[in-house]
Request: fold
Amino acid sequence: MTDFQTTSRPALVVPALGSIYAGLQMTAETLLRVVSGALLAVHGYGKILNPFGAVGMVEGLGFYPGIFWSPLLAATEFFGGIFLAIGFLTRPAAFAATIVLLVTVYFHWIVQSQGLGGAEKSILWAAITLFFVIRGANRQSVDARIGRQF
Reply:
């Protein structure tokens, strides 16, 4: 039985759709993981090409020395995004991304005084990556292929 069938949920208005929803559950979860990881990697691509380019920005947020934190930020976004997309070391990659995204929430909301409007994308991204910290990868992942999850 799938998670969809074992959880107590209200009855579907169109019960025939239950099997369709259940059949697409893993595909939807995999799609969310792949897309979020790929977009995180794309976002980090410029940083990985210039890993010391964000030294001033990270020091401006109070992360010293920036020469350490800037490449770590670049690696987390780029390699963490790739790992998340393929489902390899999914939980650690998602955890690192969640930390980065929570810092961006702080940056946009507090440092730049943009409030919710400036931080909403980072909040959404953090919620997505936190989902994978808790859930891990599914059967459609490298973690499943090697038979190990963190």
Summary: The chain has one domain: 13-146. The two ends are 25 Å apart (CA to CA).
